[in-house]
Write a structure and sequence with these properties.
single chain; alpha/beta; Rossmann fold; formyl-coa transferase, domain 3; six-stranded parallel sheet; three-stranded antiparallel sheet; 18 helices; 11 strands; transferase; CoA-Trfase_fam_III; CoA-Trfase_III_dom_1_sf
Length: 405
Amino acid sequence: MSAGEAAAPLPLAGVTVLDIATFLAAPFAGTILADFGATVVKIEHPRLGDPMRAFGTPTECGDTLAWLSEARNKQCMTLDLRHPDGAALFRRLVAQVDVVLENFRPGTLERWGLAPDSLREINPRLVVLRVSAYGQTGPKRGLPGFARVAHGFGGLSYLAGEPDGKPVVPGSTSLADYLSGLWGALGVMLALRVAERSGRGQDVDIGLYEAVFRLLDETAPAYARHGVVRERMGADVPTVVPHGHWQTAEGRWVAIACTSDKIFARLAEAMGKPDLAGPERFATTAQRIAARGEVNGLVADWAAGLSMEELGAACDAAGVPWGPINSIADIFADPHVAARGNLLRLLDPRVGELVLPAPVPRLTATPATLRHAGRARGADTEAVLRDRLGLAAEAIAALRRDGAI
């Protein structure tokens, strides 16, 4: 797959989306939809724009690399939704589209006279994705929040870090935003399916914290049933051993995953100590959990005596799942990443060559495309108003003078 290539009509061709959200969570849902063929019109304030344009590493065009990557494949127009003429234009656009994406604080659209129910009086099939810190209901519904807060409230940060250390950021500082965008894209497609059958749209309501809480495997049922509060365990997990990170002779870190007794027996063979998997030692998960420190120490000693290449060869030969702990530099140099096409290169007219992460998931017959990076603020305003609403150049100029666009 290459930039601009499309072997067949994309899965979401014909779906039109208005993205009035800011920053990352709901807009990322729009990015996913756009990657797979939806027409996504990004609507920004005429003067302020989306703060995502200033978040991250700046470039010579004035927008950051984060914007160029995450606003890709979207048309960009400006519209002041608080201006009477801007709101009127928005309602006219709503009549023609399938989806609206927003992530303002609950009640904001209602104050502007643009509540989803009122928009569905214009377009009964309209699907509205609403992402907020805590969701549209509940005692915290009106409070602000970002991904960092969501990681804490949703239980993820509590689990991230060493047992005797403070909670840490679990990977990307924007993980909850990206996950909310993923859940949001799924919710939009489910709601569109319902709209196809029934002719009725609906809201998709996501709290940022819910996006991470849903991924905490058995922590909820384990607490409800047994009162277990899972604590920070570093790279370990409570249910299997050894299952973590180890350092090799040259200082590289690797992940080794032994999720069953059979796999541990293979690891013991690879370590040259098959007796470790004997019934008197660590044959069962229960035995290994009871001797977690000793088992992890044996693996650590083994790993420390090998280069990463040697350790990998031994694990591969034995059928033990393992992998390097890659930096972004390692990812760029990895031949598997290259073979899978996980990094896409394109020439952007504003900044030159860019390398962006490829869309996910991979569809074999109708793959996503990368058509262009994030565009300049208002780059498509005139085209959208002219082509979708039939406005003449003079009318567009008057709206611009009046501050509506």
